[in-house]
Write a structure and sequence with these properties.
By secondary structure, this protein is α+β, with helices and mostly antiparallel strands. It has a five-stranded antiparallel β-sheet, with helices on both faces. It is elongated.
Length: 253
């Protein structure tokens, strides 16, 4: 059952997991006609890359068979939408992106991407690129219209409800980035999190051993395993990365 905009905005803060917030958001966007979404966020962007995919958040309800090509074969790197959101902030009709493609040469990889999109009816929608405070961060979402809607239909939807849709997506983005996230292979144990938190508080290995009731060798082991889990070289980098991913200094009740 559809709820009012105000009720939906209130509900965004109820779930405490990324999965629950994502499910709620997909249901809301489907009410506007966008039933397939692709959301991405990274805090590790550089001048030449969006960073390791394992360090970011990637959420989608597109069919797995589509994602196997789009992500698995790296076709997303050649998507005009990805290029646009990387360099811009705001909302963009896929019509503009299609016009840009028509105006210039198309690479073999782009041809493969466009063929994939046609096969899965990924042909009409909108892109939203979020404004983040850090130059290393970038978040964006692609809203794909349900099968049967043309870009004219989508642009008409945006004319009526675009401001609401942008507001809902911005709040979704803020909520998602406030929650803990990590790939399963990089999730920290409770002891690793505690040790990193004490390091972040400026404690020495000896201090941490006393506070945790462990030997210094065991503390060093927890920190080493934390570095390995987070794929970093130093403990300072581990504290920073774990903090970015909201894995430490958070209420886990």
């Amino acid at each position: 059952m559809s709820v009012s905009l105000f009720e939906h905005l209130e509900r965004v803060f109820v779930p405490t997991t990324i999965e629950a917030v994502w499910t709620q958001h997909c249901e809301k966007m489907a009410e506007y006609g966008f039933d397939r979404l692709f959301y991405g966020y990274t805090r590790f962007r550089t001048n030449h890359s969006l960073g390791n995919a394992d360090d970011g958040i990637l959420l989608s309800n597109h069919p797995q068979s589509y994602l196997e090509h789009y992500l698995g074969q790296g076709l997303y790197k050649h998507a005009p939408m990805v290029d646009w959101v990387t360099e811009n902030v705001g909302a963009c009709s896929w019509r503009l992106l299609a016009d840009r493609v028509k105006a210039g040469p198309v690479s073999d990889m782009q041809e493969r991407l466009f063929a994939l999109n046609r096969r899965f009816d990924v042909v009409a929608g909108y892109a939203i690129s979020f404004r983040d405070l850090s130059i290393r961060s970038k978040g964006a979402i692609g809203l794909c219209a349900r099968v049967g809607l043309s870009q004219d239909d989508v642009d008409a939807i945006w004319q009526r409800s675009g401001r609401e849709i942008v507001l809902i997506n911005n709040l979704f983005h803020l909520r998602i980035t406030s929650l803990p996230y990590a790939s399963p292979v990089r999730s920290l144990t409770a002891r690793q999190r505690e040790a990193l938190e004490w390091v972040g508080d400026g404690k020495t290995i000896q201090d941490i051993a006393i506070l945790m009731g462990l030997t210094t060798a065991t503390v060093e082991k927890h920190l080493r395993l934390a570095r390995e889990s987070l794929a970093v070289e130093t403990t300072a980098q581990a504290v920073l990365k774990a903090s970015f991913q909201n894995q430490i200094f958070v209420d886990r009740q």
